[in-house]
Specification:
Blueprint lengths: L12 H8 L11 H5 L10 H10 L2 H5 L3 H4 L5 H5 L6 H14 L7 H17 L4 H12 L6 H9 L14 H7 L8
Helix pairs in contact: 1-7, 8-9
Length: about 180
């Protein structure tokens, strides 16, 4: 059986570079991002491979990977990259594309958490932890899994019952208008 050749395609580079605001084509595969990443043991694609897959136009493989959801967004990659490429931003762009295309996330719990977090920020301008966790639990169906921990946090005044908003929400609302993939 003949091996299939991968032909580079710029069809994915342009939208991902624009959405992530990252210079994707500057990556020359030095692997420093992967060497410093604390989450590689849990990833199916290494950080340098994510950038290379974008460069090659391998969108389906990327959008179905665990890596784009597993990234902790610690930004170690950008601190090590000689070209200042923030792979967490690229992963965020890929997550948005996956959600916009209706692709089932490889890690649905992580996707549900991201959506609950962003919905909380969009509604009040900052995260309301209790409301966010209720939304997350409703999405995942894990209603009582963390009740003991939640009660301890509530007793120590770490969870507010009522959300606190911010004064000037209009700039934040304008920023979030372009985040269509996260509004599902």
């Amino acid at each position: 059986m003949a091996e299939q050749q991968v032909v580079p395609s710029q069809q994915l580079v342009t939208p991902v570079a624009k959405l992530s605001r990252q210079p994707v084509n500057r990556c020359y595969q030095c692997h420093k991002c992967t060497a410093g990443c604390p989450v590689t043991a849990a990833m199916d694609l290494m950080p340098h491979q994510v950038v290379r897959y974008v460069q090659l136009g391998l969108e389906e493989e990327l959008l179905k990977s665990k890596t784009i959801w597993q990234c902790a967004a610690c930004r170690t990659c950008i601190s090590r990259c000689p070209n200042g490429i923030d792979i967490a931003a690229i992963n965020d762009a890929l997550k948005q594309r996956a959600l916009a295309q209706g692709i089932q996330p490889a890690l649905p719990g992580v996707a549900a958490f991201h959506q609950a977090f962003l919905a909380s920020v969009k509604n009040k301008g900052r995260v309301h932890e209790l409301g966010m966790m209720i939304a997350f639990k409703l999405k995942t169906g894990t209603y009582f899994q963390d009740v003991p921990l939640g009660l301890k946090m509530f007793q120590r005044h770490k969870l507010r019952i009522l959300p606190e908003g911010i004064k000037k929400r209009q700039p934040l609302q304008a920023l979030l208008q372009g985040e269509k993939g996260w509004q599902k």
